[in-house]
Amino acid sequence: MAQLSDDCFAFGGPMMSVDEAVSIIATRVTAVQDIETVSLTAADGRILAKEISAPLPLPPFTNSAVDGYAVRSGDLAQVAEQEQERALPVAGRVQAGAATQGPVEPGHAVRIFTGAPMPQGADTVFMQEDVRLDQGRVVLPMGLKPGANVRMAGEDIPAGHSALAAGQRLRPQDVALAAAFGLTHVEVRRRIRVAVFSTGNELVSPGASRGAAQLFDSNRFMLMAMLVRLGCEVSDLGILRDDRVSLASALKSVAGTLDLILTTGGVSTGEEDHVKAAVESVGTLVLWRMAIKPGRPVAMGIIGGTPFIGLPGNPVASFVTFVHVVRPTVLALAGAAQQHLIPMPVRAAFTYKKKIARREYVRVNLRRCENGVLEAVKFPREGAGLLSSLVDTDGLVELGEEITLVEPGQTVGFLGYANLI
Ligand code: AMP
Ligand code: MG
Fold this sequence. Notes:
By secondary structure, this protein is α/β, with parallel strands linked by helices. The chain has helices at 18-28, 172-180, 219-229, 244-254, 275-282, 315-333, 388-391, 417-420, and strands at 35-39, 52-53, 63-64, 68-71, 85-94, 109-112, 124-127, 132-134, 137-141, 150-151, 162-164, 185-189, 193-199, 203-204, 215-216, 233-240, 260-264, 284-288, 292-293, 298-303, 306-311, 344-348, 352-353, 359-368, 374-378, 395-399, 405-406, 411-416. Strands 7-4-6-5-9-8 form a 6-stranded mixed beta sheet, with no helix packed on it. Strands 16-13-17-21-20-18 form a 6-stranded mixed beta sheet, with helices on both faces. A 5-stranded mixed barrel has the order 22-25-24-26-28. Helix 1 (18-28) packs parallel to helix 6 (315-333) and helix 3 (219-229) packs parallel to helix 6. The radius of gyration is 30 Å and the shape is elongated. The structure holds adenosine monophosphate and magnesium ion. Magnesium ion binds next to loops.
């Protein structure tokens, strides 16, 4: 278990910016230490525990980048200005995977194929498309740069080079690199374990019978899906009623058995919001009044050393605060390098007024204009309870704290949903 101190999430100010939240999390949350060894086929999405240095150069040997003819470039030194081509006898043939052959004789060319080792002495390859054959000789045009079409040993990655950093969240291309080094397994941090509750008397689980004033719990399934995408092992702890005592005992019973407790709902400051009081009775809690819309507030706590995050109940607020608070916490607990979200510049096709000193997220669809420019079209409605506004859009336009007005044609930053988790 990653044991965190009770004041881990302490914060003095009245409002918290998104950047402050991310930096508090990144600096104060410590990673789980357990390491496991997994095969490459199970490595995608896992967090690399130790740096991997290249045990061999890539490519491991100098080879041809094309199908063609390998020569010694010195043989092609131009003697006469008007000389347009040079014919060399073809002596030898080397395929991919062939054992290295003897040196190419001066004044000769060797037939060679992509990926085949360069014969000793040869340093340049003519593409087969650029030559013609004439009675056992290959006719080469002049002017090809020495070294052309050759991949030098180590030109991709030299031996000993730090190739994958500890904390890397492995992607398919990272797994490919480990395989290229001949590794069969990698050492990764264990998956972090997260318990998820929903809170609210109005909620029932899908499949249960729904009373007239009840709705099916959707947040829990959204949050669990997001956590799984982040590589967590998720425990589904169902729905808790709006009751301080039962909330407190449920929280206490899971604290210490896993790495993070995540709840949704019940953290506003209404009298039926019991999560805050429940956490306070079994641990410590601070309300982060986040300068974010949709969003605030988010309850941050420690129960028996285990971090607790209480997200708002409105689905869109829950989604957005997950991205800015839960995601960095999960990455920190999992030992992953923080992955900063980098918005892509697009053109706004809407007018939007906002409060200064608050980060706002606008749900948008992208469309490509005639001139190829990408335009963000705002979803017509803004309610934080509208699930359709997340389902029917491509992502979020991020409007920084300093912005008060967006007008059509202005450049804004877009974050696609796929990049958020
Ligand atoms: P709360 O944060 O508990 O005040 O909830 C705010 C709004 O979000 C209310 O309309 C709730 O019904 C709704 N809500 C809370 N939890 C969920 C959930 N798990 N799934 C869907 N809607 C929810
Ligand atoms: Mg509630």
